[in-house]
Design brief:
Elements (H helix, E strand, L loop, with lengths): L8 H10 L4 H5 L5 E10 L6 E9 L17 H8 L2 E8 L4 H20 L6 E6 L2 H7 L4 H5 L4 E4 H8 L10 H7 L8 E3 L2 E3 L3 H11 L3 H11 L6 E3 L10 E6 L12 H7 L7 E5 L22 E6 L2 H11 L3 E2 L2 E2 L1 E4 L5 H11 L4 H15 L38
Parallel strand pairs: 1-4, 4-5, 8-10
Antiparallel strand pairs: 1-2, 2-3, 6-7, 9-11, 9-14, 10-11, 12-13
Helix pairs in contact: 8-9
Amino acid sequence: METKNIHTQEQLDGLVERYVPTVKAVEKLRDDTFFVSMVIKPALGVWGLFEVSLALLPTLDEPIEIWDDDERLTLGGFVLANNVRVMSFKINMIGQGDAAKLRADTTLVRALNKLCENIPQGKIALVGFSLQKAMENMGLNFVDYNNMFSLWIDLSRMIEATSPDLTNFQASMGDILNAFGYAPLGVAQFGVKNVLPNDAVRALAVLDGLQYPRNIHNLILREQTFPDTAVEARVESFRFRQYKANVHRSGLPLPRSINSTQKLAVAIQNYRPIGVAADVSDPLNPQFKTCSPGIRAMGMTRGCVCFKDKEALAKFIKDYDGKTVDGVKVKADEISHQPLWKLVKDYLRTKGTSMRDHLKGITTSAKESLSGWSDLFHSPAGVNFPWCPNTEDAPPGYYDTGDYHTV
């Protein structure tokens, strides 16, 4: 148990007896249990001030996989659909130790009683992410608060128990909910009042989402690594790779199983790519402003896959162009290669100069500024500038003559 407030065997036995360790155990609580989530964290930039989020879920419904792949869930929708009660406040722990603790205990107990008033008799489960540590960091006794509830759930431990691949799993609630298909923000409206879901609502949404096997699978995919593949959030990161292809739906969101960089990398790993990226953009509309929220962010509209040779690229395009993924067809188009030297050359041409003249100007300026280094810019003969140590390394048509020592 991650708590320092266990002093007797009776206290330990009480915690163990009320502990709900797995999702399977939660399924048995649907009919007669209310769920109260609590999240405590330090207020940003204010020592001794803590933000407390509370939320009450009256019923944990059975999972029904009915949402559309292109539709993102929202926390506001979760609040309204489940009649979630929400409460947020701050507790000031500045002052004498005992007085501050008494003030915090009084405030928190009153808030919990207010949240749970008028609910029918039944079991109430306390839900949190390593809540025992958060309460003890605040100076409160987790065991005392745990005794107020029939059951308690540590979501951090529960996630680890879902699969051996999630042992020592660490992620923010935002990252977890993103893997579950939730949009980053969502506001619930009660009459004329808007309520922004707090961290306690996010904890309840995580508890609800753990009932879906697909969400567990997404968490496992999130943790997978690719030692031989560069995984990037920006397609632009592979601008100068030679053998690459776009995966897209003409600006529409990619299918759910490949709608993030991480998912795309998992789906095509058998093709042995050397680079994978995905972002929000339209490869058919250059004016579309690109957005790159991260390798695990979902809802991407374009993927980029890089290979080490032309044969591997051709095989991927042959298999993937027109392929049906999650019930929709995707396209795979080869991206024309644009060498870096050509991009620089074209840019300098727009400035009215050439690459050769530009480099010559840089060399002259360097020799004038750093006369002691001038030998570095001369050929062994000491009179001519070596534009390139090896003619084979130069871009086609770069030199005006076959003698690259001639200025």
